[in-house]
Design goal:
Layout lengths: L9 H4 L3 H15 L11 E10 L1 E3 L14 E5 L3 H9 L5 H13 L11 E9 L5 H4 L4 H23 L8 E2 L10 E7 L5 E7 L16 E3 L1 H7 L6 H8 L7 H18 L4 H16 L6 H12 L1 H6 L2 H14 L5 H21 L6 H17 L5 H10 L18
Parallel strand pairs: 2-8
Antiparallel strand pairs: 1-4, 1-5, 3-4, 6-7
Helix pairs in contact: 6-9, 8-14, 9-10, 9-14, 10-13, 10-14, 11-15, 13-14
Length: about 400
């Protein structure tokens, strides 16, 4: 039997009592005012963000136990059921049908077909009733968007790291920056006739890395939660998914902002944007104010190990960046891919040690101490060298990401 035709289970569908009571209050307040919504007391809201590349197979939308604490991921096909259960008793049928039509058509043409899920962010607060006249973004909605972007970056980077194709998932709004544009060429021969062709302009552009509806990943929200702790992502997953901060503020902010920057780079259609964004993500983690690239590279080598930095061509990546910035030399796909791999490895390794230090400053001091000590370790006797090894608080040389390894011909 089709899932949509099955009877909804109140217990599994959502933890609705408190939320429905809030909705009752919401509708009562709005009935006494000409504005569409006027909420006088803070209540809980769900704010939905279309998400592409991942299809959730849950029988019911898991709003009762969000997989990310304050963020759930639900199938697009459940949206009508969510709205119907929550709102249909508060409004006439024709008004509800108009609402559903608005929800289904409130996307850029062509986008409705490419996404399969929603990130649902739970927020508590008051929606600003003046927004309809002032057109100012609502603070509550902006906070929800910020949280959705954090979870989206976690998913984008996880599925990139664990796949071989370089494809991944992301918010629908990010598809627009991931699609190379087609161009039309008109040519005239000497006889005066014209011909034209339409083809993708692929030079210096990457194909869209967001999985389309036909090749999207299929799994339940519980399966998603289980796999996110695999392949060295456990600490990063915990930091990004928890509504509460698990590591010192300065380290937490660096991890989150670096992840947001890298995920934006991954979803860009331009190789230069990818490489520059990846290096910026590294700098967010491993620099304070103005830091020479030489120091940044030493910190990367200390964090990841010499072998991995050689595999990902650390020196070449930074040289490519300099040649682009100062001489305008084009960036090739391979270098942008290596840069993304370097930044992602840095984020994961940094996340592994963030809980061991009281601040970002102390993490950088630790990396600088290890880097300087390694330059003179050959001067020490065996016991001193062993004592130095005992000071190391992180593991180096994590496994290569599959998307970087070129398939054998």
């Amino acid at each position: 039997m089709d899932n949509e035709s099955q009877e909804e289970s109140p217990d599994e569908f959502m933890d609705s009592k408190t939320w429905e009571e809030s909705l009752d209050k919401w509708m009562q307040d709005s009935e006494s005012d000409d504005q569409h919504v006027l909420v006088r007391k803070p209540i809980s809201w769900w704010i939905f963000f279309p998400f592409a590349g991942l299809s959730i197979t849950d029988q019911y939308p898991e709003l009762a136990k969000p997989v990310f604490g304050d963020v759930a991921i639900i199938s697009k096909k459940h949206m009508e059921s969510v709205l119907r259960r929550s709102l249909s008793k508060h409004m006439p049928k024709e008004n509800f049908e108009q609402l559903m039509e608005w929800v289904q058509n409130s996307f850029v043409e062509g986008v409705q077909e490419v996404f399969q899920s929603y990130l649902a962010v739970r927020q508590t607060g008051i929606l600003d009733s003046d927004n309809e006249t002032t057109h100012k973004p609502d603070k509550l909605a902006l906070e929800a968007k910020k949280r959705a972007s954090e979870i989206s970056s976690l998913l984008t980077l996880f599925f990139l790291a664990n796949g071989t194709s370089g494809e991944t998932c992301g918010l629908v709004e990010q598809i627009q920056i991931a699609m190379p544009q087609n161009i039309t060429i008109l040519g005239a021969d000497y006889g005066g006739s014209f011909k034209f062709s339409n083809y993708p302009l692929n030079h210096s552009l990457a194909s869209s890395p967001i999985l389309d509806s036909e090749s999207s990943l299929h799994m339940s929200s519980q399966e998603l939660s289980n796999i996110l702790t695999q392949n060295g992502f456990d600490n990063f997953y915990q930091i990004m998914s928890s509504p509460k901060r698990l590591v010192p503020k300065s380290s937490h902010n660096s991890i989150v902002q670096s992840s947001l920057r890298l995920s934006e780079s991954v979803l860009s259609a331009n190789f230069s944007t990818r490489l520059l964004g990846a290096i910026t993500a590294i700098e967010i983690l491993l620099t304070k104010e103005i830091t020479p690239f030489k120091v940044t590279k030493h910190r990367v080598k200390t964090l990841l190990g010499e072998s991995l930095c050689t595999q990902y061509k650390l020196e070449n990546v930074f040289t490519t960046r300099n040649n682009y910035v100062h001489d305008g030399k084009e960036i090739e796909e391979d270098m942008s891919t290596k840069a993304i791999a370097l930044a992602l490895a840095c984020i994961l390794s940094y996340s592994d040690i963030a809980h061991l230090f009281s601040s970002k400053d102390n993490i950088l001091a630790y990396l600088d101490f290890i880097s300087t000590s390694e330059e003179i370790v050959s001067e020490w006797n065996q016991q001193e060298q062993q004592s130095f090894q005992n000071l190391l608080r992180h593991a180096q040389n994590r496994q290569l990401f599959p998307f970087v390894i070129k398939p054998t011909q």
